[in-house]
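Lab notebook page, bench 4
Experiment: in silico fold of construct C2
Operator: M.H.
Input chain length: 474 residues
Purpose: comparison with the prior construct
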Amino acid sequence: MDQAHTLARCAGPIKRRSFLQLGGLSVLGLGMGDFLRYQAAAKAGGSAFVDRDTSVIFIWLPGGLPHMEFYDLKPDAPAEYRGDFRPIKTNVPGIEVGELLPRHTKIADKFTLIRSIHHEFADHGGAHKRMMTGRLPKTPTGTVNDAPAVASIVKKVMGHTGTDMPVTVACVDNGRAGIDTFAMGPAWLGAATSPFLVAGNPSETGFQVQNIGVKNEMETRLDDRLSMLTGMDRLRRDIDKSGAMDAMDSFNRQAMEMLTSQRVRDAFDLAKEDTRTRDRYGMHAYGQRALMARRLVEAGSRFVTLVWENPFPGQPIPKNCAYNWDCHAVNCHIFEDTKWRAPVYDQALTALIEDLYQRGLDKKTLLVVGSDFGHTPKINVQRGTQTGVMQPGRDHWPQSMSVLVSGGGMPMGQVIGATNAKGEHPVERVMTPNDLWATVYHHLGIDYNHYLTNMEGLPMQILPFGKPIKELVS
């Protein structure tokens, strides 16, 4: 359990060079009989996907959402647990949220809180891999995946959207676009299943998505380039076992489709939205990424990841606040950081939920808000690296965490699961991240019991354990 009892500033997930981790039968723990049985299952299993008009928006909060400040407050706990904030009532009897989320209170009938998901990885790296993949990572640290992230599974199984829209998209801050920064790597599925990465702050004037659109004067040269590529391609792809050629094919195809598609350009172009809508979401990174996600799923993308770290990239961060959600006392004064961050989060998230419902996208699109873990129920006090003064904070705590879901045609206005009186661990409807992902796969029409093959031809189950959350899918 990482209590981070040092004065070193916790930097959170960092970039690492992507590499593939491959193994044989012994590494997988499979005997030959197991292998043949799984291989037969993979071949006989039919399609892993029932094609539906469905999509997912996945909001990722790196560093860990402090559940005791947002969605699982304990007003009757001792002062060193409950913190500064109090719960407030919502429009659904029995559902309460933190007092800094007033917009949530008006739409609680449109979301469900899950308070009983937990896992055992207290380091950012291990927790990112555990959450992003639905598998137990081989190592408890580092963000280079040994199993594919869910977004890569979705891209592999759902394939092409039927439009020229990218199947999977991930929106991140500048400097955070490495595929391994948040354990979003494809591992044994190969680079071709990586999401299309959009880096930068879409609330900035002049923001542009790189690698889409082509100027009129370039169209002739583009046609020439396509002809040249077709004529030069004489490689024997059947002997390439690394997946590099498949990745090149995929990237070239996607790049050309996106370069030449007006539909793609329009979907990413937030200037197409009126000022009132943009202001409703908020002219900050959280709000404009959320608006972009709504436009993307509306246009045909299937899985859009929004990484919400700094709400105001390019602006100075208050000394007593943190870059992302990693609310150790050495990083920030947790209550001041929450006062700075929560109103932006409240505005962007509720605007997205309301917009999805108003546009009739709530049946098609499932919204999931999650993070690496929760934070310690008991507050600790340390000297802040930036402030130089003693201040309160909470450390990493995978034993309990809160997740919000909305839409997907599922029953909303619920609280599922509960933690004990101090918020330390689940005591009702104990679940793991796999139950959340089984629910997501169920919504998308993906058979999570299906097997895919890795680059060595070995069968791998899409989700090794877990089942859909019955309160959402029954």
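Observations: The first helix runs from residue 25 to 28. The domain at 51-213+261-473 is CATH 3.40.720.10 (Alkaline Phosphatase, subunit A).
Next step: discuss at group meeting.
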